[in-house]
Amino acid sequence: MEKKHKEMDRREFLKTLGLGAAATTVAMAGCDSRRNPVSGNQKAQGDIPTDQMTYRTNPTTGDRVSLLGYGCMRWPLRKRADGQGDEIDQDAVNEMIDYAIAHGVNYFDTSPAYVQGWSEAATGIALSRHPRDKYYIATKLSNFAPSTWSREASMAMYHNSFKALQVDYIDYMLLHAVGMGSGMREYEQRYIDNGMLDFLLKEREAGRIRNLGFSYHGDIRVFDHLLSMHDTIKWDFVQIQMNYVDWKHAKEVNTNNTNAEYLYGELEKRGIPAVIMEPLLGGRLSNVHDHIAATLKQRRPDASVASWAFRFAGSYPSVLTVLSGMTYMEHLQDNVRTYSPLDPLTEDDFAFLEETAQLMLRYPTIPCNDCKYCMPCPYGLDIPGVLLHYNRCVNEGNVVASSQDENYRKARRAFLIGYDRSVPRLRQASHCIGCGQCTPHCPQGINIPHEMHRIDRFVEDMKQNKDF
Questions:
Q1: Which of 108, 113, 272, 465 could cysteine-pair with 142, CB 3.0–4.6 Å?
Q2: Residue 75 and residue 324 in contact, taking contact as beta carbons nearer than 8 Å
Q3: What are phi and psi of 61, to 5 degrees?
């Protein structure tokens, strides 16, 4: 297959990478990162090693997979030259992937649905500049919409993934987000009635798919049903949501979720490797309440808040790789450091994180994982932007219950000014008409119109309290 860019050998791109990566780091982290809330005390820890990545072995194929996997859901965007919307910043994607490969990351997870449909092509451009045996590509049959449930439409999506990724085989192919929507019936319409599961099994036999699995969201009956088929299908891996809050408290966060302790346990007893998504619970475990952040930093002063979540996920032996959707170089570097090599949690650490999880449940954030499956909104709302701003203000103590609260004036100002800065006014919650088109696409089962209207009422109440 023709490559769009000249391949580089490892020595060449390591040599040329260093200056650019360093420049990006300074731009993202500022001049002094010694107490950065994301990355911890980087200067105290020294250089990030290039040869210390932790790897796990896939028992089916023998693949030696980096414990840190690159989730390609959140590639950086830039304004188009003609001013008509956004596009993926391909130069930034190239730099991030170069840095990841240089530091031992070899698993890249994408989908036809990610980044407004652009992720596969951008990932393919960046990876095609490297030898094919240096990386594993995971992608998905993301036939969510009923218009894509036909065999013809699903086949077109499958074949387009090869073209976009510039490959002639897929290392890890997933049935995407089984259990969403109407649960078992939707799974059957997407994969059984149209014969697509049988087709994918034949593609695995032919070698065009090296590993076949599924990612699970929602209806536990679908998860259990698919695992009951393992003796005949032989799933090579399964992707689940797992973090130290969802381990025991998934249903307390969202009643549609299943505790990760159960999901992981069912995979482990069948010998199926687990690929972990949402180790940070959509970023909420790196942007925790200030009180929780202080507790985590007190226990490990030089480590980032996020590193606790990654160490938790990586400490389970049946985990093949832990995905992180890294938009910025600073996040990539911090995660590489955490797994180069992994310092597994002790029993005391696990107990400490369970206490931390219970503290997290006291702060009423909305379980948005910023996956953007709800987008685009037909009425122009920035749904993830609204929800993430609200969650950020909850964690910073800027959502208070009453105007009589002594911190109300400060909290009101921080919320309203931050809201206008984070979300353009024409895209704020006040413009939600409650059409509900977004709700069926949310893997977390959020009643999005309800939350939009609740946040809008909260904003209007604050605006009316002008004396505070």
A1: 113
A2: no
A3: -105, -10
Per-residue pLDDT tens digits for 235-267: 999 999 999 999 999 988 777 789 999 999 999
Answer left, alpha or beta for residue 236, where phi above 0 means left and psi between -120 and 50 means alpha.
alpha
Cis peptide before 279 (omega within 30 of 0): no
H or E, element range at 172: strand 170-178
Contacts of 75 (CB under 8 A, 6+ apart): 88, 89, 92, 93, 114, 115, 118, 119, 122, 123, 327
For 171-181, the pLDDT digits (tens) are 999 999 999 88
Amino acid (one-letter) located at 335:
N
Q: Can you tell me the distance from the alpha carbon of 304 to that of 42, in angstroms, rounded to the nearest whole number?
A: 9
Sequence-distant (6+) residues with CB within 8 A of 310 are: 68, 279, 280, 322, 324, 335, 338, 339
C-alpha radius of gyration, the chain, whole number:
22
Residue 42 has pLDDT above 60, yes or no: no
CA distances for 20 relative to 13, 30, 92, 94, angstroms: 11, 15, 10, 11
Q: Which residue, 56, 158, 153, is CA-closest to 107?
A: 56
Alpha helices of 7-76 — where are they, by DSSP H? 10-29, 42-45
Q: According to the model, what pLDDT value does residue 402 have?
A: 66
Q: How do residues 374-392 score in pLDDT, each as one tens digit? A: 888 998 999 989 988 888 8
DSSP 342: B
Residue 443 CB-half CA count within 13 A: 21
Is the distance from CB of 186 to CB of 177 less than 8 angstroms?
Answer: no
Q: Would you give the end-to-end CA distance of the chain in angstroms?
A: 65
The CA-atom distances, in angstroms, between 445 and each of 74, 86, 243, 441 are 21, 28, 18, 8
Give the pLDDT score at 24.
Answer: 34
pLDDT in tens, 196-239: 999 999 999 999 999 999 999 888 999 999 999 999 999 999 99
3-class secondary structure per residue, 156-167: HHHHHHHHHHCC
User: Could you identify the residue written with the tokens 């219970």?
Assistant: 358
What's the predicted TM-score (pTM) here? 0.80
**Of 77, 118, 65, 125, the residue nearest 97 (C-alpha):** 125
What's the 3-state SS for 47-66?
CCCCCCCCEEECCCCCCEEE
Judge whether 205 and 179 are in contact, CB under 8 Å.
no
Contact 335, 303 (CB under 8 A): no
Contacts for 160 with CB less than 8 Å, ≥ 6 apart: 112, 120
